[in-house]
């Protein structure tokens, strides 16, 4: 503490001693301490009591306001749901009319329609009618004690019949004359309004107030042809209000702007019947319930009339000196509905308990006052001054002043405390000095470490960005020529003049390209996994169908190797689940492919089961367990740890000379992403078992999905617009793929090499759709798309982005600039055609299904080779053939097959088939034991 701080404090202490302390020296210190303490406690108790009372009042107001608001909201929501049913019935009637399930001319069809709708929606609907402009009325209603009646109105009369169980009229139960159906409100008001209207009227027979929703129907010439109506009793609304207890004595009611009662929370009906049998609507201000009656009277006078209420209002008024809380909420729609929902809650329903709590609080405060005063008298004189001195000393230490200690001439606990305090201060001074030095040293070390970490982080980010850029560029460079290879291969398969030999060659090109694309995708998947960018894309799908597709995929391959392929589904697995279908399919394909690849004798089995499945499809997660077991060569125990390392292969894999070592690592990461784990157990010579679990959700249905075209498209259907298609790509070969695919079908096509040319053609030609490449010189696809979509008529042209990039994050970025869809190269011909169907509504003509090029391959014509079939060839030929199969030299194998004698044509055909399908493992197996 410096001198500038000490001097003012000493001056204040001297001033206190001379002005206050000196005159009070003869007064006991206990009195000087206790009197202010007691005054403070008294003030605190009084303030607590007052605040308790005020808080009680405020709590009542807040609770009443919240209760009124929540009650009004619930009532309003119930009424809205209540009103949806008649509207739904009318809409279904109109839809069925448009579907020609009934007609305005066929009265029998009208009777069946109303009978069906009443049976379907009762008791939510009490009656359904159809009134025509020819003064006929047909309908069905529940008449007297839920007896269903058929309504038949003709001209100026009305008949009610008892229908049979099919809605046909049988016994006449009521006949009324002078009944003009066109002058009745349900027809006349709807015709006058020209739109759907709500109508309220009492029903004497059922003693209920009915709400009718009438909807006029017009023909194509805007001429009224009739009115459909649906009736619903408001008794259910009153029952809801009666069952909903807002408070002990509170009431709720619904009224019209005229003050007429619609529904209420009492048993009182909203209308009366006089001695002449004529019904009269009841005003809320004339209700027999005092609370409803006086509330309605207050609203008429205080608010200035019910017509002046335009929004929710919270009011309060008194009845017999008791406060009442009121909330009025308007309920309106564009069909003439204009009601007011009123909630009234007496204050006395809340105040009883709150007043009791207030009294208890005041009593406790008084007791606390007495107890606190007593303790103050006992302890004040022993505590006050020593504690203040210790407090001041502690503040000095906190400011860094270690020189002053606490001196007390006492031997009691406070004296000992002062001594301990002085010792502690000395120790703290030493500790702080040591700590400051350590902190300084540590701070320097941390600063150096942080600098090193920051440098390492920057290097890692640069490396990661370089890696991502390299992968993206390599993917683009690989996919671009691959798009041309697969694209022209698909175009060649559409040719009618292609020979069988050439068609098989094109098939080999396509399969090879697909194989290369799979390798590229595997590397990209691994890169995304390492970068932490792989995400889960759950969807609802058919699990049984997925498993069946995978089984069909590997069935022929297993039969070629004479292996058994078993798929076992336990009955507890749900048919439909929600998880990432693509990743689950990839995992199963990788594992089953490996199992078949490394198994020569026996078979491969897949077992699927659900662990603790729900009894019904719910949103609760479940665990699916998968086991893939084979009888292959097995894996040594010391190699199991390397299975999930990228690019690592076991000895079995090296012997087979197949695979990249990416399948298992990617599969395991996908399983972990789906909330599970994968384990492998194996024994050399006895096979391998791979087990994994995933988390999924059982659902009731699958997402809609497009089934790939199974038939070839050969032309456009007639009577369609001449679709103008613009193809924009800086690579001519990519443009030619689309031109050669779309020109034979009848599209008008133009092409552009960059975005600038595309904009010029778009301005002059106004194409229906643009296939837009994203990477182009001069002006890229993103800039061109942004320019086109920014124009007034830009949205009339659909733009589909084409890109060879593999980065998923590019998809959202491309769609964000205005592209209507996204397609990644290499694309399939059916993807191009489906996208145009989706965005333009193009209709195609398909080739007949008996076309030979669409028939599945008849593998039964291929002979099943045996090792004994090779005895016709020399030992030198067999040795060279086995070596070529082991190293995968396709050209050498084809040359050796051509040396087989012509008499062995079946053997030649079978071997060519195996080479075309890259079945080198089968060739190795057939020739490995031959001399």
Low-confidence stretches: 704-710, 850-862
**Sheet with the most strands?**
8 strands, antiparallel
Strand order of the largest sheet: 5-4-3-2-1-8-7-6
Please report the number of helical segments.
22
Derived structural class: alpha+beta
Task: Describe the secondary structure blueprint for this structure.
Blueprint: H1 3-21, H2 29-98, H3 107-121, E1 127-132, E2 136-143, E3 147-154, E4 157-163, E5 169-177, H4 185-193, E6 197-203, E7 208-218, E8 224-233, H5 235-243, E9 251-256, E10 261-264, E11 271-273, E12 279-281, H6 290-302, E13 313-319, E14 322-332, E15 338-346, H7 348-398, H8 413-493, H9 500-531, E16 539-542, H10 543-560, E17 564-569, E18 576-579, H11 581-597, E19 603-611, E20 621-630, H12 651-656, H13 663-673, E21 678-683, E22 687-698, E23 713-716, E24 724-728, H14 732-742, E25 748-752, H15 755-765, E26 769-773, H16 781-790, E27 798-803, H17 809-816, E28 821-824, H18 829-840, E29 844-846, H19 875-887, H20 890-897, H21 905-916, H22 920-927
Parallel strand pairs: 17-19, 24-25, 24-26, 26-27, 27-28
Antiparallel strand pairs: 1-2, 1-8, 2-3, 3-4, 4-5, 6-7, 7-8, 9-10, 9-15, 11-12, 13-14, 14-15, 16-18, 18-22, 19-20, 20-22, 21-22, 23-29
Helix pairs in contact: 2-7, 7-8, 8-9, 8-14, 9-13, 10-11, 11-13, 15-16, 19-20, 19-22, 20-21
């Amino acid at each position: 503490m410096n001198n500038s701080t000490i001097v003012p404090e000493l001056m204040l202490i001297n001033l206190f001693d001379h002005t206050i302390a000196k005159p009070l020296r003869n007064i006991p210190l206990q009195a000087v301490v206790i009197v202010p303490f007691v005054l403070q406690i008294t003030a605190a108790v009084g303030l607590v009591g007052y605040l308790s009372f005020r808080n009680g009042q405020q709590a009542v107001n807040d609770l009443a306001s919240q209760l009124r608001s929540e009650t009004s909201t619930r009532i309003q929501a119930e009424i809205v749901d209540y009103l949806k049913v008649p509207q739904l019935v009318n809409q279904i009637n109109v839809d069925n009319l448009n579907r020609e399930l009934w007609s305005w001319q066929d009265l029998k069809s009208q009777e069946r329609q109303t009978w069906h709708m009443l049976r379907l929606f009762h008791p939510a609907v009490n009656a359904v009618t159809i009134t025509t402009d020819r003064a006929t009325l047909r309908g069905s209603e529940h008449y007297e004690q839920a007896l269903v009646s058929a309504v038949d109105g003709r001209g100026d009369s009305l008949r009610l019949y008892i229908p049979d169980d099919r809605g046909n009229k049988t016994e006449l139960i009521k006949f009324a004359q002078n009944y003009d159906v066109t002058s009745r409100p349900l027809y006349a008001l709807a015709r006058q309004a020209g739109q759907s209207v709500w109508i309220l009227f009492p029903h004497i027979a059922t003693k209920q107030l009915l709400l009718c929703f009438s909807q006029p129907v017009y023909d194509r010439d805007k001429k009224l042809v009739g009115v459909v109506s649906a009736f619903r009793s408001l008794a259910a609304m009153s029952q809801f209000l009666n069952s909903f207890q807002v408070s002990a004595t509170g009431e709720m009611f619904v009224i019209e702007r005229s003050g007429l009662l619609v529904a209420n929370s009492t048993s009182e009906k909203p209308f009366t019947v006089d001695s002449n049998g004529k019904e009269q609507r009841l005003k809320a201000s004339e209700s027999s319930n005092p609370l409803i009656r006086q509330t309605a009277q207050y609203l008429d006078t205080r608010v200035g009339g019910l017509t002046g209420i335009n929004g929710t209002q919270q009011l309060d008024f008194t009845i017999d000196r008791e406060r009442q809380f009121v909330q009025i909420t308007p309920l309106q729609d564009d069909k003439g509905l204009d009601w007011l929902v009123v909630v009234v809650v007496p204050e006395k329903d809340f105040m009883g308990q709150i007043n009791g709590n207030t009294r208890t609080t005041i009593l406790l405060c008084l007791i606390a006052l007495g107890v606190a005063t007593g303790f103050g008298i006992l302890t004040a004189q022993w505590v006050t001054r020593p504690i203040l001195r210790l407090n001041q000393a502690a503040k000095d230490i906190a400011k860094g002043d270690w020189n002053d200690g606490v001196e007390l001439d006492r031997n009691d606990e406070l004296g000992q405390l002062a001594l301990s305090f002085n010792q502690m201060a000395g120790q703290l001074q030493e500790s702080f000095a040591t700590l400051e030095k350590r902190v300084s040293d540590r701070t320097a070390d941390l600063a150096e470490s942080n600098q090193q970490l920051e440098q390492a982080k920057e290097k890692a980010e640069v490396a990661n960005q370089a890696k991502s850029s390299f992968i993206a560029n390599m993917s683009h460079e690989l996919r671009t020529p691959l798009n041309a290879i697969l694209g022209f291969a698909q175009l060649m398969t559409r040719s009618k003049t292609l020979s069988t030999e050439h068609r098989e060659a094109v098939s080999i090109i396509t399969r090879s390209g697909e194989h290369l694309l799979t390798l590229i995708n595997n590397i990209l998947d691994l890169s995304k996994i390492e970068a932490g960018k792989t995400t889960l894309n759950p969807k609802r799908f058919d699990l049984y169908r997925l498993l069946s597709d995978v089984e069909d995929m590997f069935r022929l391959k297993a039969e070629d190797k004479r292996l058994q392929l078993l798929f076992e589904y336990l009955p507890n697995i749900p048919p439909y689940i929600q998880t990432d279908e693509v990743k689950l399919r990839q995992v199963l394909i990788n594992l089953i492919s490996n199992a078949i690849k490394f198994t020569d004798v026996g078979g491969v089995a897949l077992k699927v089961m659900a662990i603790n499945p729900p009894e019904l499809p719910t949103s609760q997660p479940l665990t699916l367990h998968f086991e893939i077991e084979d009888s292959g060569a097995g894996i040594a125990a010391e190699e199991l740890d390397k299975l999930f390392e990228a690019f690592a292969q076991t000895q079995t894999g090296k012997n087979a000379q197949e695979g990249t070592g990416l399948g298992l690592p990617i599969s395991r990461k996908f399983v972990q992403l789906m909330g599970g784990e994968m384990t492998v157990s194996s024994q050399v010579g006895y096979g391998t078992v791979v087990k994994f679990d995933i988390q999924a959700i059982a659902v009731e249905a699958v997402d809609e999905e497009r089934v790939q075209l199974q038939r070839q498209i050969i032309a456009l259907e007639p009577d369609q617009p001449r679709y103008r298609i613009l193809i924009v790509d800086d690579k001519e070969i990519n443009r030619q793929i689309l031109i050669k695919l779309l020109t034979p079908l009848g599209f008008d096509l133009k092409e552009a090499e960059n975005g600038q040319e595309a904009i010029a053609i778009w301005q002059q030609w106004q194409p229906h759709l643009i296939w837009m490449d994203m990477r182009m010189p001069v002006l890229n696809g993103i800039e061109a798309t942004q320019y086109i979509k920014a124009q007034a008529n830009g949205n009339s042209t659909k733009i589909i982005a084409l890109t060879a990039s593999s980065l998923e994050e590019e998809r959202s970025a491309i769609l964000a600039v205005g592209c209507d869809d996204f397609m990644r190269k290499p694309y399939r011909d059916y993807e191009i055609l489906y996208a145009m169907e989706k965005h333009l509504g193009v209709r195609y003509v398909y080739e007949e299904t008996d076309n030979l090029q669409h028939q599945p391959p008849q593998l039964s014509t291929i002979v099943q080779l045996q090792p004994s079939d090779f005895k016709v060839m020399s030992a030198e030929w067999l040795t060279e053939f086995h070596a070529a199969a082991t190293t995968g030299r396709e050209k050498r194998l084809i040359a050796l097959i051509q040396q087989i004698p012509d008499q062995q044509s079946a053997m030649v055909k079978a071997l060519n088939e195996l080479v075309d399908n890259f079945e080198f493992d089968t060739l190795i197996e057939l020739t490995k034991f031959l001399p």
